Amino acid sequence: MAADEPLVLGIETSCDETGVGIVRGTTLLADAVASSVDTHARFGGVVPEIASRAHLEAMVPTIERALKQAGVSARDLDGIAVTSGPGLAGALLVGVSAAKAYAYALGKPLYGVNHLASHICVDQLEHGPLPEPTMALLVSGGHSSLLLAPDITSDVRPLGATIDDAAGEAFDKIARVLHLGFPGGPVIDRLAKEGDPKAIAFPRGLTGPRDAPYDFSFSGLKTSVARWIEAKRAAGEEVPVRDVAASFQEAVVDVLTRKAVRACKDEGVDHLMIGGGVAANSRLRALAQERCERAGVRLRVPRPGLCTDNGAMVAALGAEMVARNRRPSDLELSADSSLPVTEPHVPGAAQHHAHDHDHVHEVSKDNLYS
After folding, report:
1. What residues contact residue 363 under an 8 Å CB cut-off, 6+ apart?
2. Secondary structure of residue 367 in the 3-state scheme
3. Which of 5, 73, 79, 115 has the least CB density, counted as fewest CB within 10 Å?
4. 302-357 per-position pLDDT tens digit
5. What is residue 349's predicted lDDT score, i.e. its pLDDT?
């Protein structure tokens, strides 16, 4: 870590985690998170209004905690980065407003960055600078995407994405059917370790010869699992929860890893980065490692704490923006709930061609989760 590397604070509020991270270059100095997930668990999913209120209450204390953890003053910062989209509109607005206020008060440059590009860039904090281009598989509650990034600050290209439910969303819904609570990913991962992944032959969506090679679909899988469980209950039979969890999980990670490795081969990329909350899944990591080794592809996956939403990933991308002399955002920066991944950096309203109307109130189904 060199003293002349950019010192950047990042703010992440796209869903239910208030994350504040501080990095110097590619070195993580602080990663403070305040989560409202326990509050949402009572409702079986994220409630946007509750998430926004929680961000408001947690913002200043979390920033102060991160600065203390990093041992720096706010005036030492070289820039402030914030997730401007995609995500929950109200939640994003809290983070963007806070970042603009701090940037203005401190006289520091502001960088509005893309949530998905940040999930890719966070790997720099663990494994060093990203190769160029980077092949990334991002899997979370709202996104299942295959992305090729020749330049993480300016050029991110979507190869494929979910056409319905994202992987994490499917985990949550199956956990609900099994009465396992919310969020579903961690508990299904835990139970699956005690089950048989070959016990039930659940379908693999969009894997036929005429299907889009890099797109994902988990809606049919979710329906198949739910109907299988309902049939067992209707017949008065006990549901083998561990086998269901293992077989369902295997169907998801089989498709994810198969398509990701295929994309690496087709694009001539010799490495794969996996990010997003579902990247913390132990079976996904194990199967990806196995298939990457067979294909001669190097696998890069951040530790689980950096896979879920956090401020460190935003700070990492912000620091890269500073290092590459990207133009800062202006103070007209807005929250954009549907910000496309092709825009890893938002210079500001005047330069952002998509901002010909207010995106703050646009919330699509695909953006309800991080």
Report:
1. 48, 88, 89, 337
2. helix
3. 73
4. 999 999 999 999 999 999 999 999 999 999 999 999 999 999 999 865 444 444 43
5. 53
Whole-number pLDDT of residue 43: 74
- Transcribe 152-212 into DSSP letters: TTTEEEEEEEBSSS-HHHHHHHHHHHTT--SSHHHHHHHHHTTS-TTSS----TT-STTS-
Calculate the dihedral angle through the C-alpha atoms of 193, 166, 233, 227, rounding to the nearest 10 degrees. -130
Q: DSSP state, 324?
A: T
Per residue in 117-159, pLDDT (tens digit) is: 999 999 999 999 999 999 999 999 888 999 999 999 999 999 9
The helix/strand/coil state of 346 is strand
- Tens of pLDDT, residue by residue over 23-73, are 999 999 999 999 877 776 777 778 888 889 999 999 999 999 999 999 999
What is the Cα–Cα distance from 205 to 122, expressed in whole angstroms?
A: 29
Q: Distance (Å, rounded) from C-alpha 202 to C-alpha 224?
A: 7
Using the structure block, give the residue that is written with the tokens 């991308």: 317
3-state DSSP call for residue 28? strand
Closest CA to 136 of 126, 121, 125: 121
Give the global pTM: 0.90
Q: From CA 100, how far away is CA 329, in angstroms rounded?
A: 10
**Cα Rg of the chain (Å, integer):** 20
CB atoms within 10 A of CB 209: 5
Distances (CA, A) of 364 to 90, 148, 215, 359: 13, 24, 19, 11
Q: Give yes or no for residue 278 having a pLDDT over 60.
A: yes
First-residue to last-residue Cα distance in the chain: 30
131: its two tokens = 């190769």
